[in-house]
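Ligand-bound model needed. NAP.
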Amino acid sequence: MTATIIDGKQIADRMQAEIAADVVRFQAEFGFPPGLGAILAGDNPASAQYVRMKRRACEAVGFHSVAHIMTASSTQAEVEAAVAEMNADPHIHGILVQLPLPPQINEERILGLVSLDKDVDGFHPVNIGMLGMKGREPRFTPATPTGCMVILKEVGAQIEGANAVVIGRSNIVGLPVALMLMKANATVTVCHSRTKNLPDVVRQADIVIAGIGRPEFVKSDWLKPGAVVIDVGTNRVDDPTTEKGYKFVGDVEFDKALEVAGAITKVPGGVGPMTITMLLHNTLKAARRLAAVPK
Ligand code: NAP
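Prediction:
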């Protein structure tokens, strides 16, 4: 079997073109563009790079975008003030607090202060709670897990009734994607660092979501033939054959998995571009809701 390689970039490019066209209509109707506000505190170069990429994507689809860049020594009060300012700004419809925050900042409190109407990252505890509850719909769902779900639908994966195994239980990837799969009527098993017999658990999966952060950790002989594999992992590994001396690989042993899986995402170019696209999608959705509220 040779797996279908899922090109997330292609899906993302198509969706971003649709969003850009919607922005033109939005601007014509309301006289202003959707706006995203990003809050970055600290000196983590990866976080700074993510914020730059997100802002570039905003500009490419015609959004208004602002960033509040704060130092690693920012105080709780300063970060809270930045959130309050963006909550009150009528030109900002979505707020993104780039994680992780510096250790002196209470992340839970900050995420809980983001207006529910502007919580386009879907990390407000109320939104996460509603994601987990039967019969409730969160206003927004987190970008990376939503991107995984869109990819599954794009490749025509049967989710309802499928055995889905999620490897990783983080707040930003594993937990919310498991909740989303459960809402979509999959039978979900969540694995983590204390899971016993992980290969045997993964062998039961029609759908595998890997969000671990360990290069090529999931081996091809763990996969059920025909499984749909979504590899969220983005791991930098040395590669002297490249100009930069490194490359990015996923959590799944990609080349060998191609011979077993039914479909598998690329890394890079799989889930990553979908994450940004879902943030744009949520911001447009937030702007539409807020613009429709009578003043
Ligand atoms: P994280 O917070 O470090 O969580 C990793 C999870 O993997 C934890 O639940 C951990 O289990 C589990 N784990 C670690 N070692 C394991 C093992 N040997 N066996 C089974 N489970 C194990 O990481 P994260 O933030 O979720 O990110 C995961 C990966 O996704 C990273 O490579 C990250 O760069 C990538 N990522 C990509 C995107 C994107 O847009 N493409 C977005 C977010 C993250 P415990 O809970 O027991 O510790």
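Residues 8-30 form the longest helix (23 residues).
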